[in-house]
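Progress against Task 2.4 (sequence-to-structure conversion) is shown through the following example record, which the project officer requested during the mid-term review.
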Amino acid sequence: MPTSGEEEEEEISTSRSNSQGVVKQIDVDQQAIHLKEQIVVEILSRLPLRSLLRFKNLEALISDPYFHKMMMKQQQDQSPDSNSQKLLIRKIFSDTAPSRFKFYSSSLSNFEDVQQLDPPLTHYVDRYHIFSSFDGLVLLAADTQLFLWNPLTRETARLPHTEFEAMRTSFGLGYDDATDGYKILKLDMRLQKSMEILTLKTGFWRKICNHPTAVCPTAGYEMEILPHPSKSIPMEPLVCVHGAFHWLGDLKVSGKFYVVSFSISNEVYGDVPLLDEMGKKVSYRPDFGISLLDGMLCFYTTTNDGSLGSFKLWAMKDYGVKES
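Structure tokens generated for the chain above:
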């Protein structure tokens, strides 16, 4: 055992026991053991990220999107419950040096487990907006510039510029399994209701020139399903589940809502059916929307009848099956 003045040295070794119970140790520094790269990545992805961050020669691997996705999958498989989920908190303070914003991470199962995070940027930022998150990555804006932030690795990537109004724009962040890369979808909820998509591998924004359509039950002909403006300020993020972005839309003249889906890989529209009571517009239901809970697509409403309000949440256990 080392004394107080000695430093502990880390040694990596492999061992096996023979029939006589003798343990043979092989020092990997003396005998080369060649493992396939996939096996090494698989082993490292099972280790705590904070332990890997101590080794400078692993920085390139940790920053690789494929490795990051493998780590997130390992965490979900090992801890599928709320213990592995974190809540990202942004707080505003009156002081201005270096920023009046501070970020914290809190466990959903234990709200006393709160950790302060290093800010995404080191220089002064007048205002941060958190737009979306996926696989532990956070899409945020520092003033008028978008960034992708990894709170665990403390890495921040500047994204190609696009015009947006923080209070009138919805974003969605998702992963394209077909190309092994991330995509970001932007819904501009101003009068034009325009859409753009960013593929991180290509590094530029593309316009989506069409909206989904549906036959209007009252008019009898096809109309565009436009994104329904949310009452929330800032706008709620798009829901990414089952390889698609989702948002709430309507036909303006119709009395029902639609849950629109947009495939991340092939960029094709679809729709997710709702129960009749969920899709109807009523005057006493001032707020409604969709969200994600334990991997399930959800639809929620708030009701205000003049005395007591209520909140209802429908969770779709089997994606695409409205009765589930």
